Amino acid sequence: MPATTFTASYDRTATTISALVCLAPILIGLLTHNTLAPALLIALVLLTYLWSPRSYSVSAEWITVNRLVGGLRIPLTEVRELRRATAEDLSGGVRLWASGGLFGYFGLFRTAKLGACRWYVTNRRNIVILSTDAGTTLFSPDDVEGFLDAVRPWAPFASSVPTSSSPAARPARPALRWFAVAAIAGLIGAVAAFVAFAITYSPGPPAYTLTPNSLAIHDRFYPVTLPAGSIDASRIRVVDLDANPAWRPVARTNGFANSHYRSGWFRVVNGETVRLYQASSRRLVLLPSNGTGPTVLLEVKSPDAFVAALRRAWSAQATVRARRALIPCTTSGASEITTTAITNLSKFRRTNGMSPNA
After folding, report:
1. Does 163 fall in a domain?
2. What is the chain's pLDDT, residue by residue, as a tens digit (358 residues)?
3. Over the range 114-148, which residues count as b (16 or more CB within 10 Å of their CB) and which as e?
4. Does 169 map to a domain?
5. What is the distance between the alpha carbons of residues 57 and 49, in angstroms, rounded to a whole number?
6. pTM for the whole thing?
7. What is the count of structural domains for the chain?
8. Taking Cα atoms as reference points, which of 34, 29, 30 lies closest to residue 264?
9. What distance lies between CA 38 and its chain's CA centroid?
10. Looking at the structure, do residues 60 and 127 belong to the same domain, yes or no?
C-alpha cells in the first residue's frame, strides 16, 4: 500500500522566530562590518532547515518524518498510545537538546507528564502523541484526524509486552543522527562564541615596536612591519579625522571592524586605500608612503610624542644611510675625473708630436 503524506506548516511562533533568525546575518554584518560571522550564522540556519521536519508519511510499518536531509522512520510496533495532545501533556516543557522554534520544534524535550520525548513538531496546536515501548514521539500534521485515521490500522495496541528479541522492538538509531546533533551543537557553539567575540572585541590601540630601521605594528588580525625607507618621514604628522575629513575611513576593503576597533585595509574619503589601526580616538598618526609601501593611519596613546620619537629615530638613520651612500659615489666620481684627465693629456701630447709618456 502506498504511503499517505501529511503536510506540516509552521505556527505563528515558529514563523516569527525563523524570520528573525534569517534576518540576523544581515544585522550582524551591519553591526560588525565583518563577513565571517554572518557566513557562519547562515550555515547554521541552513543546516537547521535541512534537518527540520517538512511533512510526514504513513505506511503499513512506519511513520516517516520527511526532511531535506536524513529522513527519519518511526516503526509502528509495540504502540501503547496514539492520541491528540492536550495542554497538560505539554505543561512544564523543557528543551533538552532541540530547536525551540527555528523551523519548528524538533529534538529532545521533557515535559512534566510525558517525561523525555522526541519532537518533530512545526505547529504546537496540532500535536499528536505516539507512545511505544521505545519511547514517546510527537508530530504535528496539519490534518490531525486524517493522520490518526491513517496510523490506527497499522498500530495495534499491544496486549502484552513483546520479548526483547523482536526486531521491531529495537528501532534503529542511525549514527548519522547523533553525528548531526553533535555537528549542530558544535556549530551553534562556534557561531555564538565568534559572534560574541566579534561584537565585543576591544583591544585598544595596538602595540608597536619602533627601531631605527622599521616600525612593527602588533595587531591580532593584520600585523605589519614598515621599513623606514618605505615611509616619507618628512610628511609624518598627526591628523584629526574631524578636522581633516579627507582621511576619514568610508569603506572596509579587507579588514576587521566593529564599534570598538578597526584594523586592516580601508578606503578613505580622498579615495586612497590605507592600512588603518583605530580604537576610539579621532586623532591618528599619518605615515605617508613614499611609493614603496602602504600609507598607514595608526592610533597610539600619545600621538605627538610618537611622531617626535619616530622622526628622531628615522631621521638619524636616514643621515647615516645618506653618508654611506655618498662615500662610494664620491670615490667613483674622482676616479672617473682622473681617468678622463689622463686620456685628454695623452691626446694633447700626440697631437703636438710629444711622447705620450713624457
Report:
1. no
2. 577 899 999 999 999 999 988 888 888 777 766 677 788 888 889 999 999 999 999 988 889 999 998 888 988 887 888 999 998 998 888 888 888 889 999 999 999 999 999 999 999 999 999 998 888 999 999 999 999 999 888 876 643 333 333 333 333 344 444 555 555 666 666 666 777 777 788 899 999 999 999 999 999 889 999 999 899 888 999 999 999 999 999 998 888 888 889 999 999 999 999 999 999 999 999 999 998 889 999 999 999 999 999 988 887 665 665 566 555 544 444 444 445 555 554 554 555 555 555 5
3. beebbbbbbbbebbbbbbbbbebbbbbbeebeebb
4. no
5. 19
6. 0.50
7. 2
8. 34
9. 6
10. yes
- Do 243 and 194 lie in one domain? The reply is no
Determine the structural domain holding residue 318 and report its residue range.
Answer: 203-358
Among all chains, which residue has been given the C-alpha cell 579587507?
254
In the sheet with 62-66, reading across from the earlier edge strand, the strands are 4-7, 55-58, 62-66, 72-75
Tell me: do 261 and 350 sit in the same domain: yes
Helix axes 12-32, 175-200, angle to 10 degrees: 40
Q: Is residue 69 included in any domain, yes or no?
A: yes
Which residue intervals of the chain are DSSP H helices? Answer: 12-32, 36-50, 87-90, 144-151, 175-200, 303-351
Residue 167 lies in a domain: no
